[in-house]
Each structure stands twice: as structure tokens, then as C-alpha cells.
Amino acid sequence: MEFAIRTLAMPLFQETDELLIKRVARGDSNALAALHDRHAHVILAYLARITGDEPVAQDLLQETFLAARHGARAFRGRSKVRTWLFGIAHNKAGHWLRRRRPESLDEDDPIVDSGPAVSELADAAWTRERVTAALAQLPQNQRAVLELTFYHGLSCAEVAEVLDCPVGTVKSRAYFARRRLARLLADLDGDE
Q1: Structural domain contains residue 28
Q2: How many domains does the chain have?
Q3: In whole angstroms, what is the distance from residue 138 CA to residue 130 CA?
Q4: What does the pLDDT look like over 20-65, one tens digit per residue?
Q5: Which residues span the domain enclosing 89?
């Protein structure tokens, strides 16, 4: 009889994020694992770009999903689960950046990870290096807006929720970030 019930249940990978988070709230570790499998790769990429440190990003990813497990009962569905997870990750990264000792910061330390392995095409690698160098010079709040919007495809409303600020602030940060990024790229072109 138990076997018949299991075959009728929807596999976790087919359930919506909202159903999974409800199951997480009831203590279902398999549902948490399904959410992790579904969203960990994009959240890890975001954390790695923000921190510039892959091992730290891995730790923050684990902290993010632990916080999601503990906070699942508080999730009210006013946002997408993915947006909620990005918000937790953003807060974890911000906390890590604030508590990072100033003496450990070195001007040569990368703030933004270059992303995937270096392209086989020299032009693509050169462009990526220029963009990465320019992004690293943006203030963290502007860099976060660009990361969430362009790398992860979040809408302005979703970015506002992740960053816990008004949509107008997100639009303003995006505007100034794009302008500054264009100037920085132009300056990099002038240096060569």
C-alpha cells in the first residue's frame, strides 16, 4: 500500500518552488535538497562574483540554504522563492563583506570573479577581462544591481526585493552603474 502512495506522489523535481518551500517549512529535507539542486548554481555564481572568492561563496551558499530551511515558515509567497533565496544570499554576502578585516583587503585582490574558464578566443577573453576590471571598480550596490539584472535575469522589482530597497532606487543604481561602467570601459580603452 505504501508503494502505491509513493507512485502517485509528484516527483520533487516536478513540484513548484512554492510547494517545495511549504514542504521545507514542514521539515522535509528532500524538498530542501530539490530547491538546492534547482537554484544553487545561479546563487553560487552570484556569491562568487560578489565576494571574489570561490571557497567563501561555497560557505555562503551553505549558510543561505541553512537560513532558508530555518526561515521557510516565515515565507509568505509575496515574492518568488528564487528571489527570496537571492535576498538571503545577498544579505549573507553583505554581512561577510562588512566583517572582512580591512587589513585583509589588498588593492590587487579581485572583487569580481571572471566567471567561467577563460575562453579559447582571445578577443572574448580580452573583453571579459576589461568588463570584469571595470565592474570591480563600481560601488558594491551598483555592481549588485548589474549582477542580478544581467547575469541572473531578475526584474527591477525582484532586484528591489533582494536588495531591500525601492524599485526607483534599483533603476537609479542601474542607470548610474551603466554610465560609470561605460566611462570605465572607455578609460580602459584609452590606456591601451
Answers
A1: yes
A2: 2
A3: 13
A4: 999 999 999 999 999 999 999 999 988 988 888 899 999 999 999 9
A5: 12-109
Residue that is written with C-alpha cell 543561505 in the block: 64
CB of 81 closer than 8 Å to CB of 75: yes
Query: At which of 69, 90, 109 does a domain end?
Result: 109
Q: Give 151's contacts (C-beta < 8 A, 6+ positions apart).
A: 45, 46, 49
Q: Give the pLDDT confidence of 119-175 residue by residue, as tens digits.
A: 333 444 456 667 777 888 888 889 899 888 887 888 889 999 999 999 999 999 999
Asked whether residue 99 falls in the same domain as residue 127, the answer is no
27 & 104 share domain: yes
State how far Cα 73 lies from the chain centre: 22
Question: What CA–CA distance (Å, rounded) separates 188 from 149?
Answer: 24
